[in-house]
Amino acid sequence: MDKISKSFVNSVDRLSHLIGEIGKWFLMVMVFSLMFEVIARYFFKAPTIWAADVCEQCMILLGSIGGAYSYLYDQFVRIDLLYEKLSLRRRAILDICTFVIFAIFMYMVVTTNFEAMFTAYEINITSPTIMRIPYGYGRTAVAIGSVLLALQGISILIKNIHVLRYNEPYPQLYHN
């Protein structure tokens, strides 16, 4: 595999891993916010006005940046009945064929998310809650997450081409 594609794959894989690890901290923020809300509401009869917004924003971040991380570790749902019985080479062929569908889908997702992001900033859409959080922030995270997922898909494609060329798995930077 040439240096450019190896560098691309390693860079995208590192970025997806890093973003996924950062996402775990947002999960912690969400859990502690919910825990605080439950304790405040049911033990002290003093519910918060911010916990729902914080949890919503954390969930948006987790959902948007978690895709590339999940794809890196091959954690997406698939029908394994036939796939697992295929040889490494045939799996690579199947993955390359389905990449076409993935690429078309990701093109639509990326363009739609960027349009939504620009619209949110243009007309200054905010949440209907007390905190009035600008929707542009969440939509920016979703747009960035969709680009990361598309890049991770290209990385997986390059790895599958490597399997076809050398009939061996691509050396992984990270292991589950």
TrEMBL record:
It comes from the Bacteria. Residues 30-159 form the Tripartite ATP-independent periplasmic transporters DctQ component domain. Its main location: membrane. It is a multi-pass membrane protein. It is found in: Cell inner membrane. Keywords: Cell inner membrane, Cell membrane, Membrane, Transmembrane, Transmembrane helix, Transport. The chain crosses the membrane at residues 25-44, 92-110, 137-158. Belongs to the TRAP transporter small permease family. PANTHER family: 2,3-DIKETO-L-GULONATE TRAP TRANSPORTER SMALL PERMEASE PROTEIN YIAM (PTHR35011), SLL1102 PROTEIN (PTHR35011:SF4). This is TRAP transporter small permease subunit. The lineage of its organism: Bacteria, Bacillati, Bacillota, Clostridia, Eubacteriales.
